[in-house]
Design brief:
25% of the residues lie in helices and 29% in strands. By secondary structure, it is α+β, with helices and mostly antiparallel strands. The protein has 3 domains: 268 residues, Metallo-beta-lactamase, Chain A (4-Layer Sandwich); 78 residues, no CATH class; 129 residues, Lipocalin, CATH 2.40.128.20. The strands form 3 sheets. Strands 14, 15, 16, 17, 18, 19, 20, 21, 22, 23 and 24 form an 11-stranded antiparallel β-sheet that branches. A hairpin with a 5-residue loop joins strand 23 and strand 24.
C-alpha cells in the first residue's frame, strides 16, 4: 500500500527501533528472550530509544547470540556461548542484582569471562558480583570466578592510580591485564577480537568484536547520546578518538548503503550500524576542523564558542547540563588543538589523514638553528606567492549534488583533491569515499607530473597520466592503465576561479563505457 511503512522485528532492530524486553521475561538457552511491552510505553509504532539511566534493565536482542542490557546508564553486552557467558562491562555496583537477573533471563549458563572496555566506574563497578554470580569457582584450575580482561592502563588506574587517589577494592580489579593493540580469544565457541585504540576516550580503552555474530561493543569510544567524553586527565584525546572511529568503520561491513550488516553497541545509547559511526566521525571531524582554523587565527576559547562551531550537531549530541556538557567538550578539544597545532594544521593544509595525527604529534622535528625562523618565514611567503599565481592551486571538494556519473553506481559519497603547482609541474592528491564502502576514505592517490604531454606514473599502480595545459584555466588529462582501462578528461576553471568542472569519459577494464561531469568548489 503506497504511503504505508511496515516494520518487522528484524527491520526495527536494524534501525535501533526495537521494543524492549523487561527483566523477568523468560528466555531459553542461546535464544532470544520474549519481547513484551514495557509498562507505560506506547509500542504501537516504532520508536528510537536512548536507553538512558532509568534504573531498570532491558534485554535487547542484537544479533546472533549477542544481547545488549540497557537502562543502567552504560550499556552491557552479553554473548551466550555453548557452555558459558561472556560479558562486556559490568555497570555500577548498585545495578549488579538487576544485571545478574537480566542475564539469567537469557540463559542459566555461568558468566565465565568479563571484559572491561575502560576503568570507569560505570564499566567496572559490577566486576565482583558478576564474576562470582555462579556461586562457585567457574575457572576450576585457577579456583576463581570469571576472568576479567582489561588493558593494562585501565588496570593500573584501578589498582595503582597515579593521581594520588586510593585504589578501588581488590575484588574489582581485572584478573587478566594485557598490553598491545589486539588480543584474540576463542573461549565461547566464537572468535572474539579485543582491540585497544591508543588514547581515545582514555589511554586504556578496549573495543570488542564478536566475529561470528558480527557485533562490535565499542565502550565509550563511541556513544550516541553525547559528544565523546575525552578524559584528557587519563590520556584521552580527540585525535585518538577519530582514529578509533575510523578503525571501527573499517571493521564494520554494511549490508546495503552503509546500513545493516555489522551491529554496533555503543558505550551509551542505542544499537547502531556503520552509517551511525560515519555520521559521528564526520561530525567530530567538521567541528575539529572549524576549531583548528580558529586556533590558527589566534582566537580565544570564548571566541571559538561564540562562533557556534558545533551548532549543527548540538541538537543531537549537545547538552548544557550533566557530567559532560557541550562547553566541556569544546574546551577539551580547543585545549588539545591549541597545545599541538602542527598536526592539526597539517591535516587542514596537506590532507594528512587523521590517523596520522598522533604520529605527527610525536614525530622527530629537527632543532631550528639561530636565524632560521626568519629564513623559514621568507620561504613560506615566497611559496604562498608562488602558489597564488596559479588559479588551480589549492584544495577542491566535489559538489555531489550537481555532479553526474554514468553509471550512477560510480558516484562517490565524497571526493576531495588538492593541486600544488610549481611552474609547469603539478602535484595532484585525491581522496575518494564510496557510498557502500567501509573504508574512510576508500582510496587515495598522490603523484607529481609536468604539463608537457608526457606520461607519468602514479605510485603503487599501473596507471599513467598525461597532462597538457590548453590555457590558464583549462587542462587536458589522459589516463591509461595496464588492465586496458582509459579515461580522457577536460578540466575547465570558471571565470571567478571558484568552480572547476571536469568532463570525462572512458572504458573500464571490461570494456564498459563510463562518463561523468564532476563539479568541484574551491575550499
Amino acid at each position: 500500500m503506497r504511503g504505508r511503512i511496515l516494520f518487522t522485528l528484524g527491520s526495527m532492530a536494524l534501525l535501533g527501533l526495537t521494543p524492549a524486553a523487561p527483566v523477568g521475561a523468560q528466555g531459553r538457552q542461546g535464544g532470544a528472550p520474549a519481547v513484551t511491552n514495557t509498562a507505560g510505553k506506547d509500542v504501537s509504532r516504532p520508536y528510537r530509544p536512548g536507553y538512558g539511566s532509568t534504573g531498570q534493565i532491558e534485554v535487547i536482542p542484537v544479533q546472533g547470540n549477542v544481547y545488549m542490557l540497557a537502562g543502567g546508564g552504560a550499556n552491557i553486552t552479553v554473548q551466550v556461548g555453548q557452555d558459558a557467558v561472556m560479558v562486556v562491562d559490568t555497570n555500577e555496583a548498585a545495578m549488579s542484582d538487576k544485571v545478574i537477573a537480566a542475564i539469567k533471563s537469557i540463559t542459566p549458563l555461568p558468566v565465565r569471562y568479563i571484559i572491561n572496555t575502560s576503568g570507569d566506574p560505570d564499566h567496572t563497578g559490577g566486576n565482583e558480583r558478576l564474576a562470582n554470580s555462579a556461586g562457585a569457582p567457574v575457572n576450576a584450575f585457577l579456583q576463581q570466578g570469571a576472568r576479567v580482561f582489561a588493558n593494562e592502563n585501565a588496570y593500573a588506574r584501578l589498582a595503582n592510580p597515579k593521581d594520588g587517589t586510593m585504589p578501588v577494592a581488590t575484588a574489582l580489579w581485572p584478573t587478566d591485564a594485557f598490553a598491545g593493540p589486539l588480543k584474540s580469544l576463542y573461549v565461547t565457541h566464537e572468535p572474539v577480537e579485543i582491540h585497544h585504540p591508543a588514547s581515545a576516550h582514555t589511554d586504556g580503552d578496549l573495543m570488542v568484536f564478536f566475529r561470528k555474530a558480527d557485533v562490535i561493543a565499542t565502550g565509550d569510544v563511541f556513544v550516541t547520546n553525547s559528544y565523546p567524553v575525552i578524559d584528557a586527565k587519563h590520556g584521552g584525546t580527540l585525535a585518538g578518538t577519530l582514529t578509533a572511529l575510523n578503525q571501527l568503520i573499517d571493521m564494520a561491513i554494511p549490508e546495503y548503503n552503509s546500513m545493516g550488516g555489522t551491529r554496533v553497541i555503543p558505550g551509551h545509547g542505542r544499537i547502531c550500524n556503520e552509517i551511525d559511526l560515519v555520521e559521528y566521525r564526520d561530525a567530530l571531524t567538521i567541528i575539529a576542523d572549524r576549531i583548528t582554523q580558529l586556533v590558527l587565527e589566534g582566537k580565544t576559547f570564548d571566541q571559538v564558542k561564540a562562533a557556534g562551531v558545533s551548532l549543527d550537531y548540538d541538537g543531537v549530541y549537545g547538552s548544557t547540563t550533566g557530567a559532560w556538557t557541550t562547553d566541556m567538550f569544546l574546551q577539551t578539544v580547543y585545549t588539545e588543538i591549541k597545545a599541538n597545532q602542527a598536526p592539526w594544521r597539517a591535516r587542514l593544509t596537506r590532507n594528512v589523514p587523521v590517523d596520522e595525527l598522533q604520529q605527527l604529534s610525536t614525530a622527530f622535528r629537527p632543532a631550528v638553528k639561530p636565524g632560521a625562523a626568519a629564513a623559514n618565514a621568507r620561504a613560506a611567503a615566497a611559496a604562498a606567492k608562488r602558489a597564488s599565481a596559479d588559479p588551480l592551486d589549492g584544495k577542491w571538494a566535489m559538489d555531489t549534488f550537481v555532479s553526474k556519473y554514468e553509471p550512477v553506481a560510480l558516484t562517490p559519497y565524497r571526493k576531495e583533491m588538492t593541486f600544488t603547482f610549481n611552474g609547469e609541474e603539478v602535484t595532484h592528491y585525491t581522496a575518494t569515499w564510496r557510498r557502500q564502502g567501509n573504508a574512510s576514505p576508500l582510496s587515495t592517490s598522490t603523484y607529481t607530473a609536468k604539463l608537457d604531454g608526457r606520461e607519468y606514473g602514479i605510485p603503487r599502480t599501473s596507471t599513467k597520466v598525461t597532462w597538457k595545459r590548453v590555457d590558464a584555466g583549462t587542462l587536458e588529462r589522459l589516463t591509461k592503465a595496464d588492465d586496458g582501462s582509459t579515461e580522457t578528461a577536460t578540466w575547465t576553471l570558471s571565470a571567478d576561479r571558484k568552480t572547476l568542472t571536469i568532463v570525462s569519459k572512458g572504458t573500464d577494464p571490461t570494456g564498459v563505457a563510463f562518463a561523468s561531469t564532476q563539479v568541484f568548489q574551491k575550499q
